[in-house]
Amino acid sequence: MTTDDQLRTALRTVADEPAPPVATTLDHVVRRGRRRVLVQRGATVAAVVGVVATIGVGGVLLRGASEGQKLPPAGRLSPPSAVSVPTTPPTEAPTSAPTQTSKPVVPPGTEPVVPGEGYRVTLLPGWAPITTKSDGNGCGAWPALGYAPGLAAPPQDVVEPRFIDEVAAHAKSTPKWVEGEWYGTDLDTGAPRTFRSYEIDMGDGPASMVLEAGHFEGSPRKAADADVKAFGNCSTIQRKTLADGTILQLYPASFASPETPEQDVVVYAPNGRNYIVITQGWGESDVVNGSVPHGRGRLPLDDTSLASVAEMLAGLGT
Amino acid sequence: MRGRDQEFADFFSARFDGARRIAYAMCGSWTDAEEIAQNAFVRVYARWAKIRIDTVDAYLRTVLTRVFLDSRRRGRAREHAVAELPEQPVPPDHSSHERIAMHAALMAVPPGQRAVLVLRFVADLSVEQVAETLGCSTGTVKSQTARGLATLRAAYQGDSHLARNA
Predict the structure, then answer these.
(1) Interface test with A, best of B26, B41, B42, B156 (most A CBs within 10 A)
(2) What is the distance between the alpha carbons of residues A56 and A77, in angstroms, rounded to a whole number?
(3) Do the beta carbons of residue A19 and residue B20 sit within 8 Å?
(4) Cα-flanking dihedrals φ and ψ of residue A203, to 5°?
(5) Residue B7 is part of which domain span?
(6) Who among B31, B99, B118 is closest to A100 (CB)?
(7) Are A313 and A267 in contact (CB under 8 A)?
(8) Which of A17, A231, A282 has the most B C-beta neighbours within 10 Å, making it the best mutation to test the interface with B?
(9) Do B6 and B48 lie in a common domain?
(10) What was the ipTM of the complex prediction?
(11) Do A7 and B156 touch (CB under 8 A)?
(12) What's the pTM?
């Protein structure tokens, strides 16, 4: 029998093994740190401008109301229609530099367009391709999370039932909640953050759906550009811009192994809200010692269905 | 007068490798540990002017742990992909087998409890310091430690048994 003292003593040795040389340089950290400071300052300035503008517009409207003018009806200025606008490749480098070195894993059914720079994907109607250029660092950059002042968590009683219904309609199976909280806080930025994980019965085992709701920094376009390598497999992604400025970004499925695919779609709303929907071809019961040796080998939703979930979330206006 | 960047450079030189080792103990991958430590230092740099020098180590630990926990929530596919890569910089000798078995067992502990165990016994922090790092009560740290040790014990005895019979 191993005692707690023996365990503690053994634990103290786990970080003592010979380590590979440090690859991170001070210059790289400082460059990324300065960029992060600039983005944070930009977000603060934007928030102040927004507050001032709101106060100004509010004052004008109140004056107008007091003079007998009719106020415009409450609600969205633009309807959440799915009108698509062609988009162009990102015009600026991602603000989060990718650091993980990994080869793009090509999903079945795709073929290289330019070796190392993109793969042919089947575009959904109304979606535009965004080709990410390989910089040799692979994919896996950190998403453009941030803090949008004054933006609370989306209402659970509105969003969660619609999310579950939409997924169930496409997957033919109702997602069951397994972990995560709705009214949580992002540990890094302090912004309200939802993280809920659900499982879907695939017949031969579970698959997972994850719904995250958080904040991003800057405009939807800037955040979407910054995130081109945040998910997926560093190949061509698809983007759709809605009439109200919301951007939907669909990443190709990535395969860490043939049995464990994963795919992401992100919604960037003009109010600073993002929804990240992750679909995974495995469930909690497949996790062994922190890794996933076996999974279903397929995802519960295809591209069209995952895009539909994103459009539903965008249409909620939350 | 020493500049802000020079102070940070000194801090980076003195602390990066130690932070990377703590991250490695938490995640079990040198590649991920490098990324976690790098992201933590980027966040520390971004707040460098606002951090008191006597609290900077605590702040680094907090950010490092949060980056680790956040990365675990974001998807295990990456963890799986990395787990298959050989990362041992030198071939393991006989004396390192126990350490490898312990680390494998540690990876069987859920990430939250694993972070508590690493902070308590690898980083050698007190219960109060771990509570401050994680932003929770000392009671939570104690209960998470007990549960983590129970899981670790079961996994470690299983691995050790397998190693002896290999």
Answers:
(1) B42
(2) 18
(3) yes
(4) 90, -50
(5) 1-75
(6) B31
(7) yes
(8) A17
(9) yes
(10) 0.81
(11) yes
(12) 0.53
